[in-house]
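User: I'm curious whether this sequence folds into something compact or stays loose and floppy. Could you predict its structure so I can see for myself?
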Amino acid sequence: MPSKPLSEEVEQQLRNVLKKTDTTSDTNSVVKVAIEEQHCGMVAIVGRPNVGKSTLLNALVGQKISITSRKVQTTRHRITGIYTRDSYQFVFVDTPGFQTKHSNALNKSMNKVVSAALSEVSVFFLVLEAGRYDNADEQVINLLPSGASVILIANKLDTVKQRARLAPWLLDMQTKYNFAEIIPMSAKSHDDIKRLLKITEQYLPKQPWWYRPDELTDKSERFLAAEIVREKLFRLTGDELPYTSTVVIDQFQEKSTDKTGKRVLHIAASIVVDRASHKAMVIGNKGERIKRIGTESRIELEQLLNAKIFIELWVKVRSGWADNEDQLRSFGYS
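Assistant: Here's the prediction. I'll summarize afterward.
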């Protein structure tokens, strides 16, 4: 699992709020906040597809753990991102965008992920595109539990050209739900992210942290590898490749270390498509596209996992897999 040590600044912040020090030493020794001073809670990031939920999660955690692309429903799993600062631990959950356009088994599985997340959280981030509200957004609002603490994130503020038109929209949004907060912002703005975190602190209950303060996600390296390959697949095929494609890790082995002590990982992955014609799209002319998918995946995974990566990609045709519950389960979908 990828992790990073606390920065000197964050460690000093922890010292400032520390009233009692846990002097128990272990291999992951960090300065700890007394249990009675800790706040922790789950924050569900919900919204229709393509409103920037994954981009927001990555910005909040400070590292990429959820893939992004312009293809609708890129996020298919519940992705947990963990961020700890001062006495607060935020457990962010990025959910697939809820939708009703398609009704195959894959989409039903993802909608279940959204619904399940709604019952476990302390506060919700409802992400909308600033200035836009349609039936898909309304469907998500209708899923929210009555009386829940919901912060409306009016995202992509940087793309709004006429800010004066935003005020009437914000007033109208106040009639849609009893929002705890309404925050116009851009997930690409560091200052906006800091402001959002500060506002959210008050909604985290006082209870012990669920994770170590240096943890960033509960997902395995194997899972992250599959997601990175799938991101490159989606980005490099665009709308040419239908939505019904996925990535399965066949082999994930740590073979050795190099001269610098860095891990050497060998990864073999299958790109699963629905038709033979889709296979040709993925491979590309003389294999150029699948080679590029592999190269870009390797480069990003080496940075993410801090390892030397060797990756092999294969393309397999599994007709009807997205509507076959047995195959969905074998591919890791609940």
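Summary: The domain at 221-330 is CATH 3.30.300.20 (GMP Synthetase; Chain A, domain 3). Residues 288-305 form the longest helix (18 residues).
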